[in-house]
Amino acid sequence: MNKKHGLVSALAVAMVLAGCASAPTYSPSNSNGSQSLSKHTSHTPKSAHKTSAQMAAPSQNHSHNAFGVIDGQVGSAAHFNQWLANSAQQSDVAKYQQYLAQQLGVAAVPPMHELLTTARSWLVCGFAPYQVPPETLWSSMLPTLRLYHALKTQAVLPAHTQIRSVYRNPALNECAGGAPSSKHMANSAIDVWIPDYAPDDPRLAATQDALCQFWLVHGERWNLGLGLYATGAIHLDTQGYRKWGAQHSLGGAACQQMFAGQ
């Protein structure tokens, strides 16, 4: 009898131990006092919750250039084509490009991977890196692109100058710290930069001076708005004869004359 009782007890202990090994474990009570099963609760990795903007974000391992974008990413043909392949704006991109070519000629239309860039802070602000402006604003870009083409063909700007910020919708402009009356919202302004010119590069100083000279001689006819920035970026628009950024001028004679009195 004692042997039978001992055998039953041993079997009972074994079953309890087996049950403990296979039973789900419990996490401490949450804030509402309920308990959750940690074994049967799975957590979706944070990467699965990324927004489309975050998925399009370039790797942070790339080096940042003077204009604040990441080399080889935003503004490059490869990055743009990746965005375009997953964008609902494919037909709008083609239509906008065709419109500009008809109005200006193919040679005067910059690459769309430059012309559709939005703002440097697109990702932080939760917007796409590229955007086709509303069709009602397409004609506003024509005078500025004519100016840009003239500056490059006359070698005022180097041939490898690139566009890095164009149309910004009002919400993005506000988030990016743009002026309330920014011409970027009207699709009439472009910010350009010269990729291999650092902010203190003598070649940038020469380019600034050539632009200042152009502004002094031809700016009023073009209704040219010219702005210089600490990053080496240059703002161009055709919505008012004005200039700003004297503190970022590298000191050429023409720029000194242009900014005299400021």
**Dominant shape:** globular
Main sheet summary = 5 strands, mixed
Low-confidence segments, given as residue ranges, are: 1-72
Q: How far apart, in Å, are the first and last alpha carbons?
A: 109 Å
As for the CATH topology, it is Muramoyl-pentapeptide Carboxypeptidase, domain 2
Helix content range of the residues, please?
Answer: 25-40%
Quaternary structure: single chain
What is the count of DSSP helices, taking H or I runs of 4+ residues? 10
Structural class computed from helices and strand pairing:
alpha+beta
Indicate the mean pLDDT: 80
**H-E order:** HHHHHHHEHEHEEEH
> How many E strands?
5
Number of structural units classed as domains: 1
Explain what this protein looks like in three dimensions.
The chain is 39% helix and 8% strand. A hairpin with a 5-residue loop joins strand 3 and strand 4. It has one domain: Muramoyl-pentapeptide Carboxypeptidase, domain 2 (2-Layer Sandwich), CATH 3.30.1380.10. The model is unreliable at 1-72 (pLDDT under 50). It starts with a helix and ends with a helix. It contains ten helices and five strands, in the order H-H-H-H-H-H-H-E-H-E-H-E-E-E-H. The protein has a five-stranded mixed sheet, with helices on one face. With 262 residues, the chain is α+β, with helices and mostly antiparallel strands. It holds the Pfam family Peptidase_M15_3. Residues 160-197 form the Peptidase M15A C-terminal domain. It comes from Moraxella caviae. Residues 28-38 have a biased composition (Low complexity).
Layout: helices, strands, pairs:
Blueprint: H1 2-22, H2 52-55, H3 77-85, H4 90-104, H5 112-115, H6 122-125, H7 142-153, E1 162-165, H8 170-175, E2 189-193, H9 202-222, E3 225-228, E4 234-237, E5 242-244, H10 253-258
